[in-house]
Amino acid sequence: MNSMNIKALMKKYQIIPRRSAGQNFLVDKNILQKIVLSADLKTSDNVLEIGPGLGILTEQLLETAKKVVSVELDRTLNYVLKQEFRKNKNYSKLMIVNQDALELKPVDIEDFFDHQPYKIVANIPYNITSKILRKFLEFKYPPTEMVLMVQKEVAERLVSIPGEMSKLAISAQFYSDIEIVSTVSRKCFIPAPEVDSSIVKLTIKNKFPEIDVKKFFQIIRISFAAKRKQLKNNLANGLHITNSQAEAILTKANIDPTTRAQQLSLDDWVNLSKVV
């Protein structure tokens, strides 16, 4: 499938991509190959694809994967996928689900893949990127890895260093090892989005610090409540303690009380959660 095929399908089914739904169809074959190679797919792999659109990536995934479950919210696109893939030689390995991926439950994934491990490989709709990342990073039945097409700006945020950290970056780095595989021009899509994109690979960690994870993320939320405020002030307000008590906690964690949340490293947050 290529750009000509995509245009033909759009004409055949009278599809007008909805920008509000993040519908930008990837058409560059070289980029598709990069995504698939990055996922290091084997014939034993199960794949969850979110937002398959017209199925150009789906087709590539089916060439190798044991099973592909493509979750598409748009009813028209869902219908097109079912109609077009009936002719595909690998159709028996494909399950097309008309559902909002953000509403998937662990039991749904278990049913899809018979309780087996799975990977997420997807050109996800940009309007739900952060929500998808948070959902599956914190999921009770997480993937072993995620290879995703995201906005270039989001990719850069995911690999942020102290001084530029955000809640999303901390969450992503806590749960996974992250690599930016490649930058992708907006010209590789129909219609072209307003920004360039990146392929990112998130390999989910098997081991995590021995901390209260709920408290860890609660402290992060409190600390980022007002980004311009010093950390001691945000902690004091969020934990309902005095500034001097907040300073004492931060000092015990070897953190400068006058620093700001975005300046801390992942290790700093782990140490702080142990002290609070």
From TrEMBL:
Example of a GO MF term: 16S rRNA (adenine(1518)-N(6)/adenine(1519)-N(6))-dimethyltransferase activity
Keyword terms of this UniProt record: Cytoplasm, Methyltransferase, RNA-binding, rRNA processing, S-adenosyl-L-methionine, Transferase
Reaction(s) this enzyme catalyzes, per UniProt: adenosine(1518)/adenosine(1519) in 16S rRNA + 4 S-adenosyl-L-methionine = N(6)-dimethyladenosine(1518)/N(6)-dimethyladenosine(1519) in 16S rRNA + 4 S-adenosyl-L-homocysteine + 4 H(+)
This enzyme's EC code(s): 2.1.1.182
Chain ranges of the Ribosomal RNA adenine methylase transferase N-terminal domain: 31-206
Cellular location(s): Cytoplasm
Coiled coil start-end: none
Entry-linked SUPFAM superfamilies: S-adenosyl-L-methionine-dependent methyltransferases
Binding residue positions for S-adenosyl-L-methionine: 24, 26, 51, 72, 100, 123
Pfam families xrefs: RrnaAD
GO cellular component, one term: cytosol
Task performed by this protein: Specifically dimethylates two adjacent adenosines (A1518 and A1519) in the loop of a conserved hairpin near the 3'-end of 16S rRNA in the 30S particle. May play a critical role in biogenesis of 30S subunits.
Name of the protein in question: Ribosomal RNA small subunit methyltransferase A
Organism: Candidatus Falkowbacteria bacterium RIFOXYC2_FULL_36_12
